[in-house]
Fold:
Amino acid sequence: MIHEVDEVLKGLLSGGALAGTGVEIAFDAPTREWAARRNAPTIDAYLYDIREDVRRRERGAISVKDERGVVLRRRQPPRWFRLSYLITAWTKRPQDEHRMLSAVLATLLPREVLPPEELTGALAALGLTVPLTVAGLHTEARSLADIWSALGGELKPSLDVIITVPFPSFPEYDAGPPVTEGAGVRVRGTDGTLEGSQERHHRPRHLARAAGEAPATPAAIPSRRRGPGAAPQ
Structure:
């Protein structure tokens, strides 16, 4: 699923204000060694943090229905994870890098949510919109200065882009067939034989309404038979 998010972000960054500029899109860690090998203008989207958004966690099961509304399968709701990208621009002049970051802002700011039709693969199959946040408040445990220190590089202008995506937590499982007949009650004697017409059927209310019938009221169960063959009370 993460690689699908990479492809979606790459498509966004390659279009918009950066379309036709020839700027490369990379996902490498922006270390000193990597920066020294850059020869062309590059936008780097480094995935530096992955963590669950527990505020979006749901309980229960989701029903998967066919075109008639019949439940075919059930599945657990997805778990949502926040993928944090460090977006940086790399050229030989700081002014050009600032223009590139401005182009990234102009491209991503209008995209607060990504609809399913703009996603790919299993991410699109879930049919859920994906929120996107650009340059929000940095509230994670690690500061940007700590991130750059861990990368071994110098602090550089950057944008924090967070894409919160759903991950399927469990596979789907088949649901039981829909109820089409009512429950039946049979009364048998002590010898195991069915006592005459002592058989009752109850038609479900939704099926009775669909057939234009009046919902049946529960029939009273007859009292036990008294006599030589009857069981003791």
Remarks:
- The chain has a mean pLDDT of 77.
